């Protein structure tokens, strides 16, 4: 049973439906699995919940906007 987790910023329900359908289609095409067995889970996140190098992405974005 293929299970895919998509971590990204919040998207509309219509966007999530399209993404889930396309991921499902690819897995069905590549593996031959029944579409009902494909699970796509969306984990919504934002720049203040992810850090790289110990610095929140939101802080990195603020610095780049300020020209640092």
From TrEMBL:
Question: Which residues span the membrane?
Answer: none
Q: Which of UniProt's keywords are assigned here?
A: Isomerase
Which Pfam families does UniProt cross-reference here? Tautomerase
Q: Which Gene3D superfamilies match?
A: Macrophage Migration Inhibitory Factor
Q: Which SUPFAM superfamilies match?
A: Tautomerase/MIF (SSF55331)
Under InterPro entries, the record lists: 4-OT-like_dom, Tautomerase/MIF_sf
Stretch forming the signal peptide: none
List, in alphabetical order, the Gene Ontology terms for molecular function in this entry.
isomerase activity
Where does the 4-oxalocrotonate tautomerase-like domain lie? 3-59
This protein is called: 4-oxalocrotonate tautomerase-like domain-containing protein
Q: What species does this protein belong to?
A: Desulfotomaculum copahuensis
């Amino acid at each position: 049973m293929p299970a895919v987790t998509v971590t990204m910023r919040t998207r509309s329900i219509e966007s999530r439906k399209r993404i889930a359908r396309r991921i499902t289609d690819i897995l069905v095409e590549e593996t031959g699995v029944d579409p009902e067995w494909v699970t796509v889970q969306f984990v919504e996140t934002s720049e203040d919940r992810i850090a790289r190098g110990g610095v929140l992405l939101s802080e990195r974005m603020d610095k780049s906007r300020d020209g640092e």
